[in-house]
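User: Can you help me understand a structure? I only have the sequence.
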Amino acid sequence: MTEPTVLLDDVRASAACLSATVDALTDREAREPSALAGWSRGHVLTHLARSADVYCWLLTLARTGTEPGPRADATTLDRLLREGAGRDAAALVADLRRSLDRLLDEASAVPAERWSVLVSALAGWRHPAWFTLHRARRELEVHHVDLDLGHIPDAWSVGFVTGALDETAAALAARDFAVARIEATDLDRAWTLAATGPTVTGPGHVLLAWLAGRGADARLRSDAPLPSPPAWPQPPTPGWR
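Assistant: Let's start by predicting it. Here is the structure, written out as tokens:
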């Protein structure tokens, strides 16, 4: 397990970087398409804000042992996304910052002995409270790229890429993904996924972007046709960290 204090610092850094990117967002830019099919940048920013609310809810539950009010279900979150995506840029950015500030404040209040408390993702799988911070950082980093405002996978830190590849490789190996091995040429790291299938090589951030469904960069190399990765992220394999 990565120390929660380290993960919290990582989330703060990701949030600050995202905030700097959207600081001068215009109304026109907010309504333009993001890199996600069918979503404007307003959709991405609203999704990030509501996700931060969900993570804050989970951390409050872990800290207090009591649900902090009703939990938003998938239908409610979808409605909030549709209703919020068309707001002007100032409202979108202010909403995101409020939600991220609440998340960071709540995470700072969780005592050390409560980080191991199990909480449930909306899909039903359970994880310790500290993993919520990992989920939040992953959300911020990947959707920052999806905004298509100049932040690209090359900007991801080595720590983020390595940790996300560790988790993703373990999940794919447990689900029989048709790739034998992935090799991060810049990290001197490799992961065995299956007994058969292609070996895929490339810089770590390029491998992660491909596995996260963000396209196959020309820097990827494979000794056979690349399969399409499954929906990402998948529930982590128990004990992967």
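Now, to help you interpret it: The mean pLDDT is 93. The radius of gyration is 18 Å. Let me know which part you'd like to focus on.
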